[in-house]
Amino acid sequence: MVVEERRRAMVLAIRRGSTFRKVCRRFGVSLGVVQYWVRRAQGQRLDRIEFCNHSPGLSKAVNRICRAIERQVLSLRKKLREHSPLGECGAARIRQELLSLRITPVPCVRTIGRILQRFGVLDGRRRVRRPPPPKGWYLPSVARVQAEIDSFDTITDLVIKGGYDVTVLNGISLHGGLPASWPEPRLTAKIAVERLLEHWQIYGLPTYVKFDNDTIFQGAHQWPNSFGRVTRLCLQLGVTPVFTPPREPGFQAEIESFNGRWQRAVWHRFVHRNIKALKSRSDRFLKAIHVQSAQRIQSAPERRELSTHFRPDYHRSLSGTVIFLRRTDATGRVGCLGHHWLVDRNWPHRLVRIEVDLTAKKLRFYALRRREPYAQPLLKTIVYHPPKHPFYG
Question: Which of 48, 90, 203, 229 could lock onto 189 through a cystine, CB 3.0 to 4.6 A?
Answer without folding.
Answer: 229
